[in-house]
Amino acid sequence: MKILVINCGSSSLKYQLIDSDTEQVLAKGLCERIGIEGGCLTHQGAGKEKVTIQKDMPEHTVAVQMVIEALTDKEHGVIASLDEIGAVGHRIVHGGEKFAGSVIVTDEVVQAIEECADLAPLHNPANLIGIRSCEKIMPGVLQAAVFDTAFHQTMPKKAYLYGLPYEYYEKYKVRRYGFHGTSHDFVSARAAQILGKDRKDLRIIVCHLGNGASISAVKYGESVDTSMGLTPLEGLIMGTRCGDIDPAVVSFLGEKEQLSYQELSDVMNKKSGVLGMSGISSDFRDLGAAADQGDERAKMTLDAYAYRVAKYIGAYTAAMGGVDVIAFTAGVGENNISMREMIGEYLGFLGTKVDHEKNNLRGEEAVISTPESRVSMMVVPTNEELAIARETLRLVRKQ
Length: 399
Ligand code: AMP
Fold this sequence. Notes:
The chain has 399 residues and is α/β, with parallel strands linked by helices. It contains 14 helices and 14 strands.
């Protein structure tokens, strides 16, 4: 079956058409500047040239229509007609406490996603627009909702409750939810598979280090803790997000700089992290280059980043009463050799040992620790689109 995977943002739409039998990507692309002048679709069919189509997309329905046209185009397309698309899988950012797994989209599901919009006001409404646009253009085609938060719904209360008055949890559901769930699930399952073991026998720490970054503790197959919280702002130092800070910083800076909540939120989400600390870039390649040239702030930023990751690994080792596997994934985790080394240097106390030769790789599955290492350290490239396609197929088969 051919499954269209859609990741809809407020002004963008990413897609992949995946053949679920072979798990091959048949085509992928990106619509940018939806609702803004200067709309643009970039599309690439497998084994074909990348094409860019400039056309304004006043709304998401127009973007979905353009995606279908690109997929069925005689030259750049990969399918003869819309009828070949068997199902659509949507990435939904926040499922609150309502969704502990993926579901087939129904009117009730749409309503429940709407009710979670409070918790992810930038993402959930955009995700819903994606669903509605597909319903309009492909009526009758089964649609699945796959949530970023669902995998972490197994966390115990002691891990997800904040030290705030309990009434805020009861009234507003203020708690830790965690994100990147599809990735943490996929990577921990794949890590066990590579080692030839059952995930149910392993304590795995997954370090999803991308532009957004989070760590999870996956104990015997279930997420028991994760670093992102009510929103994706908590936890690690990220590309542009600050991660953990003293909450009192918010009111302190608000007063000193005369900033509104919205402005402070902008600072913490878009101007902080390694970008804010280094004053150079949110991209680790730029930071690495600057550090190599002797830039002290770049060096300090990279060290602080590695230190925070190592600190979480220590915490999650305590949370699980030990650790068997540490898996690195996403842009930085898969590609940044020196960052993995830096993190590894903090972890000797666990009996881990990075094999420098084995670690010298990018974007490939590998065990990067020595055979004597008490913990298996691994690189496991994530594939959230494939994970969404698999979930969609699973739901279709259950129908
Ligand atoms: P993601 O959000 O998973 O796409 O990760 C994006 C981040 O990965 C970028 O900001 C880069 O800092 C980082 N990245 C990608 N490729 C490399 C590389 N070859 N070396 C270092 N960092 C990389």
